[in-house]
Amino acid sequence: MSRQPTVAGLIGLTLLLSGVACSREEAPARTPPPDAKRVDPATAVNLKGRVTVDGALPSNEPIKLSGDPICEQAHKDGATSESYVGENGGLGNVFVYVKDGLGQYYFDVPREPVKLDQVGCTYKPHVFGVRVGQNVEFVNSDSTGHNVHALPAANKEFNFSQPIRTQKDRRSFASPEVMVRIKCDMHSWMTAYAGVLDHPYFAVTEPAGEFEIKQLPPGTYTIEAWHEKLGAQTRQVTLTEKGSAEMTFTFKPSAATQP
User: Fold this and answer.
1) Are strands 136-140 and 114-119 parallel, antiparallel or unpaired?
2) Residues 6+ positions from 170 with CB-CB distance below 8 Å
């Protein structure tokens, strides 16, 4: 029996033949100014912490996978959204970053891209950080077509198709923005969030809520913790030379809101 192509596959094939699917945009190289202020590793501090929850996390909403047999096959027992991830009283998928206090330091942009994969009709990772000017490599690891649609407020919107398994495309962001929502128009449940920063001081919490932000210069900082449903919290911390610091954020699930 011949296999019928999926709607997503037909759309992807059409876009591929039109020359849209294989577009690539590399981030331009950046040159530091001659008076660039650099962080001294000998005096830098690691900031450790944990994001906890006060109460039980809500249940994740079930995903309706009907319409694409490839997606259904990848989740034979069903699937749910990734909004709430928690373990041992902690909260995962929280983006924690330095919001203010860095001043005029300059940081080189990593040459290696950040990878956002599409596996089993979900984005992996669900929440990630990337630097301004750093490439994000979008990969389709599924045997069905996807598209990548970024919906920023401060950056340029982009939307392109990835109809081919193993296809890779790169894009970058020109301005800081927390957060940029990324979705697949072919599979409405597929969502990821990117925190775009002009410095390297950010982390995404593990399921138990732990995070670590490494090599911060001494100073007083505003740290923000962002969650897609529970909102954002800010706290101040002062780091002394060669010292160490820890901090905790606590979210209340009763404050859950829609993004």
Assistant:
1) parallel
2) 24, 25, 26, 27, 113, 135, 136, 137, 138
Q: Which residues contact 159 (CB under 8 A, 6 or more apart)?
A: 147, 148, 149, 150, 185
Stated as kind and residue range, the H or E segment containing 91 is: strand 90-91
Between vectors from CA 219 to CA 214 and to CA 222, what angle results, nearest 5°?
A: 80
- pTM for the full model? 0.85
pLDDT band at residue 85 under the 50/70/90 scheme: very high
* R_g of the chain computed on alpha carbons: 20
Domains and CATH numbers, the chain: 7-18+44-255 (2.60.40.420)
Structure tokens at 256: 């859950």
C-alpha dist (Å) from residue 183 to 179, 214, 247: 13, 30, 32
DSSP state of 66: T
Tell which residue, 7, 48, 31, has the closest CA to residue 215: 48
**CA pair distance 169, 140, nearest whole angstrom:** 9
